[in-house]
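Researcher: Re-running this chain for the archive, since the previous output was lost when a drive failed. Same request as before.
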Amino acid sequence: MSRSRSRGGCWWRRRRRSPRNWTRCAGRSTGWGRTRLTVATFTSGGRHLLPTALSRFVQTHPEVELTVLESEPEDAVPMVRGGAADLALAYHFDGPPPVRPGGRRSLDWRPLMEDPLWLVLPRGHRLAGRPSVDLGELSGERWVLGCLKTEAFLRRYAELAGFDLRVGASTTDYFFAQILVAAGVGVSLVPQVALAGVPETVAVRVEHPRPARHIGLVVPRRARANPCAEALADALTAAATTATPRIGARP
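Model: Regenerated structure tokens:
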């Protein structure tokens, strides 16, 4: 497999002899006798769910030239709608999914998994040894945001817990957020699939009401489904059912 990166995405291409046990799927042609499939994905989903699914997919569909585009849901959904991507791995927090079930926009939302948020603390934090924590116990803490879009979402949960959110750092990457927690900048809420087991941090379960994001697939609504896209969707569904968090060891 060869890999090259470009601004806004990354591409994987696989060329090899076809084994006897693979199943050919029809789709867009590259013009060289190969089938092309494009999937858009958000970063943490692409890092933790997509590799397992791709390994399964390329073993059974070596004839497919696969392109992976790194995109947030607000960009990935229009890609699928416009035909630039065949499916998208996306998410939403509270409220409706990015594609409403039964909507008239020619797209469907297929739920894959609930992705609960964990409290990430420095290893020496006073609450690091607890099995679970009520957010109200963190009223005096400074917070590190791992995604700028979640600030309003987290402020609502802070309000429910009886305190105002004090933001000490804002990032666009959950791994970087966990690095900042390890450095003592603050505490953070990180989705389960984005937990990285960063040294000097501990992940603790949040008590009810527990914030979560919801991961799913955006696929075109067609009378005749794309069998390649369906095969990758099946592989992603299997990967979601076996996903396990990388939770830092307790002190």
